[in-house]
Amino acid sequence: MQPIRARISSSITRIRPSATMAIDQQAKAMQRAGTEVFNLTAGELDFATPPHIVDAARAAATDPAAHHYAPTAGLPALREAIAEHTRATVRLPLDASQVLVTNGGKQAVFQALAVLVEPGDEVLLPAPYWTTYPEAVRLTGGTPVPVLSTSETFRVTATDLEMARTPRSRVLVLCSPNNPTGAVHTREELAEIGAWATRHGIWIISDEMYASLTYPPAEHVSILDAYPDAAETTILINALSKSHAMTGWRVGWMIAPTDVISAATTLQSHLSSHVNNIAQHAAVAALTGDQSATQHMRDRLHHRRDLLLTALADVDDVTVHTPDGAFYVFVDVRDWLNDHPDIGTSRVLTEQLLRQQHTAVVPGEAFGTPGHLRLSFAGDDAHIRAGAERLRHYLTDPHDRSTR
Ligand code: PLP
């Protein structure tokens, strides 16, 4: 008799569903049932894509030249625009041949790991980390190794990384500005990390999705600008999703040495071919056209960040970290949970908060750091104010917690 096999392959059962999606879906189900929910889980801006980008897509949609297969690695004009855009912040002679256009930043993350990681390799993930990284690593057969920063700032150092290094360490995935903490590494920190990784032959995947959303006086620095000598072993990842309010268009990219780009292009040719041409034409307009919308969105987000920080000020036993970039505030509730053993974990806290205060936030468990909450300030002001007020109410009013 044939042995009974599981219906789903072990490589897929190894990966876990996204906890961010789970809470978001619960919140949306409540909304569909008619409940007003203050959803502070959003990973996207509430702004529309700027009109000149939409116009470029409209023009492309009516041009038969855009109706057919195009080169896997991306339209030449877009690869050139991405190289040019990156050269503005990375002072290296990056060439269009080092660019692969992907379906959003997420596909770039998967492909970068697939190209570099062998089964058994370890991938260092500074924690808190974006929820997709460990699952993408598992899919390659690699082992995710969370590295907790020893500093209060959540900014991992070369010393922290050295403590986690083993002979199997193959890749470091760095994310600055960071999702979920908003932490932004300084040039000096990045130079040290770059030197450390290069010294030990460890590849760097630098996820710079939130580069354009950095709040002064903080400044985004790409690791390749801070430490150009790492260029042969670094993959930069970026997308238009956050910078141009284009999450739904699915345009991202990776920039890497040409052997890596060639391998990732082969993989993508069998996986998804190329990004749809209409979105690619829109992306050219996004990168080469007027950038004032990005500036405007950053200014609005800066204001919303301060609104949320003010609304959360002075809650006992709760530490709120000021994010220097991205659009999330990461809140440390470990002391509060110690005082409330009946609730015990940030996951239970978020479930109760949703049920009782109709406010959705993501628990730290999703990012490898239980005892925290991630609050998004990507939504509108009224929404942020109301959600923060309800969270404050939940944390400070025991009567309200137990009876609602
Ligand atoms: N990297 C980080 C850190 C993110 O937060 C996200 C999306 O939330 C992505 C990558 C993927 O973005 P995209 O929507 O372009 O696939």
Can you offer a commentary on this structure?
Strand 12 (362-363) and strand 13 form a beta hairpin. The chain is 43% helix and 14% strand. Helix 3 packs antiparallel against helix 11 (277-288) and helix 4 (76-87) runs parallel beside helix 11. The model has no long low-confidence stretch (mean pLDDT 94). The protein has helices at 10-13, 19-32, 51-61, 76-87, 104-116, 132-139, 158-164, 187-199, 223-226, 258-271, 277-288, 292-311, 334-339, 346-357, 381-396, 398-403, and strands at 38-39, 99-102, 122-127, 143-148, 169-175, 203-207, 234-239, 252-255, 319-320, 328-332, 359-360, 362-363, 372-376. The chain is α/β, with parallel strands linked by helices. The strands form three sheets. A seven-stranded mixed sheet has the order 2-8-7-6-5-3-4, sandwiched between helices. It has a four-stranded antiparallel sheet with strand order 9-10-13-12. The N and C termini lie far apart (56 Å). It has 16 helices and 13 strands. Residues 43, 104-106, 109, 130, 175, 179, 207, 209, 239, 241, 247, 252 line the site of pyridoxal-5'-phosphate.
Please describe the topology of this protein.
Elements lengths: L9 H4 L5 H14 L5 E2 L11 H11 L14 H12 L11 E4 L1 H13 L5 E6 L4 H8 L3 E6 L9 H7 L4 E7 L11 H13 L3 E5 L15 H4 L7 E6 L12 E4 L2 H14 L5 H12 L3 H20 L7 E2 L7 E5 L1 H6 L6 H12 L1 E2 L1 E2 L8 E5 L4 H16 L1 H6 L1
Bound molecules: pyridoxal-5'-phosphate.
Pyridoxal-5'-phosphate binds next to helix 5.
* Relative helix content: 40-55%
**Major sheet attributes:** 7 strands, mixed
- Note the overall shape: globular
Count, helices: 16
Percentage of residues in strands: 5-15%
The residue-averaged pLDDT reads: 94
Distance between the termini: 56 Å
